[in-house]
Design a protein that fits this description.
Layout lengths: L1 E2 L1 H8 L3 E8 L4 E3 L7 H17 L6 H5 L3 E4 L2 H8 L3 H4 E2 L10 H9 L11 E11 L4 E10 L4 E10 L6 H32 L1
Parallel strand pairs: 2-4, 2-6, 3-5, 3-6
Antiparallel strand pairs: 1-8, 6-7, 7-8
Length: about 200
Amino acid sequence: MYLNSELFKDFLNHREITWLGVDFSKAKFTRSGFSLPQDALQRYFIDWNTLIITDQKKYDVRMSFRKPIMQYDLSWVTKRNKSVKVNNLLCDFITVNAVYSDEEMVAHVESSLENVSCDSTYALFYLVESFDDHTKLGTVWVIILNMEVKRVVLCEKFMKSPGGFNLRNYWGRVFYNLFFDIQKYAYLRWENMVRTELS
C-alpha cells in the first residue's frame, strides 16, 4: 500500500471528487471464463463502467469516500480501455508477471497523468490488475489522485470475490464488494493511519 499522508490529510478536508472510472489497460484475465471477441470485450468494459454510474445506490462512491459532491468524467479511462487488445489481455493463468508492486503502480499512474484533465482537486479511479476465473477473485487497485500536483495520494490493492448471474453482473460484484469494504472498513483505516503518522 502507498499513502501520501500530507496529501491524504488535505483530501479529507475536500467535499468534492471526480470519478474517472474503471481502468482495464493493465489487466489480465484468465482465458477460462473470458473467451470473448474484441468487440464483446470492449462492451464489457463499457458495461462495468456504466454500472457504477447508473446504479449509484449500489455502487456508492459518495458514501464510500465521504464526498457529497461528485463529478464523473470517464473520458481518460475510456480512451485507455479502447487500447486493450484481447490477445494481450487473456492468459491461461495469472502469473507473477501480471502482479504489480506498490512502487510500480504509483510510477505507472503518475507517468500517465499529463493526459488527464479534471476540474476537481481530487480524482479517483479503479485499476483492474486481474480477473481470475480459476481462483474466483478480482484484483483491483484503488487510486486517489491530487490533480493540482499530478500525484498519487493513495494506492492500495484489494482482492474481492465475484458473484451473481451473467458475466457482467458476476464480475461487477467485485466492484460492489470493494465499495462496501471501503465504506465500512478501509476508509476508517486510512484515516487512522494518517492521524497516527501525523500525530
